[in-house]
Amino acid sequence: MMLQTDPSRRKAAVITVLLISISAIPLLTRSRNLAWSKNAIPATTTKSVAAPAPSFKRPADPQALIAFRNRLLAEQRDGQQHGVYIESLRSSEPVAAWNEQMLFNPASVLKLATSLVALDKLGADYRFRTEFRATGEVDARTGTLNGDLILLSGGDPSFSITDARNAGDALRQMGIRRVNGSLVVVGSFTCNHNSQTDISAGVFRRQSRIPFRDNTRFEAGKAAFASAKLLLTIESDTLLHILREQNAHSVNAMADQLGEDIGGVAALKEFLTGKLGLPEHEVFIMRASGLEINRLTPRGTVQILRALLDWLSSHGYKPEDVMPVAGVEYSTLAGRFTEPEFTGSVIAKTGTLTETDSGAAALSGVMMTRRYGPLLFVIYNMAEGRGVHQLKREQDKFLKDLMDELGGPLALASRPESDQPYLLQSRLIK
Questions:
Q1: pLDDT digits over 320-361, tens only?
Q2: Which of 294, 298, 386, 307 lies closest to 65 in space, CA to CA?
Q3: Distance CA 69, CA 96 (A)
Q4: Which helix (H) or strand (E) holds 217?
Q5: How far apart are CA 189 and CA 193, in angstroms?
Q6: Is the pTM of this model over 0.70?
């Protein structure tokens, strides 16, 4: 017997199905069109399909690596979720390798790649300029700008509260005490480590202490404001100093803004695969800061690190010019390698994720040994949902044991007389 359906119910069901289908369209479009579609993200347990290079000779496992691996396995951790690669800076000879071709989330170690591409494209002495322009005239009697104040962003990743206050003070000295119009922010703007332009604009409005009559407007094209009267410019510290600050304290907003400055994550990947020759399937980048989901192999990471150090050396700089020295200065490495014999023997970038990919702890840089000299290293540990602090302790023990096994550590630097950190120095130009 055929069941009869109430026409009104049938119509309601059809409408419900249509509404569900329409609401799903944005999600389907996002998943299909963007590079970070869930199906496109390589798992951390994925092995690179590329065979080892013919010149690669797998080293015998050092005792320190054997002990490190055994400790992790004794904690019932998945051995496929951990990777190590270490080679000589001078000869490129491999010293230690474990899952060196597996894909891992590098977390903030990815900032080393962002640093390399920024230096290559912009140069160490590059300074970012934030211009302030006006579209109207100033009433000298009332101190009112009858028009808009234009903030023409130059992509400065280090623009600070101090810069905002200095700009406000300079405007008042020029006779502008209020704006009878809007703050118009042109381009991507970062202030006080806020990566969202609208939030940064709000910080500027409060800290400049200049009252505006109208709400903030946001514009993308700079050409329309080229003829507006230039009032003053805030010029950043050098890119090299900005990178030092970014990497010492792992400032995500800085790295994400730098990523935009160099052309976005697509340009970052293009550099790594095109100029450095990393295989396409070994590079997956979602954020230039290392936030969210990214993928590199340990060997690929050391290749990036070597390219960064080569760039620095060829321009007269040292690794410690863009990375913190453990046990010597305040940074994300504070409290690590602080024993007298190890202080100053490790220069490195940390990486930490607490939730993404169930957590990750990463460490990559240079360590100094008496027998082998400087070694380039990377350690990737996926936390498997168990927290990262124990993994960081295991990383430190592994590197200390390895340095002892290779003749002992060799200090590159000593603790400075003053523990005051370097403060970025911007300058105001009228």
A1: 999 999 998 889 999 999 999 999 999 999 999 999 999 999
A2: 298
A3: 12
A4: strand 217-219
A5: 10
A6: yes
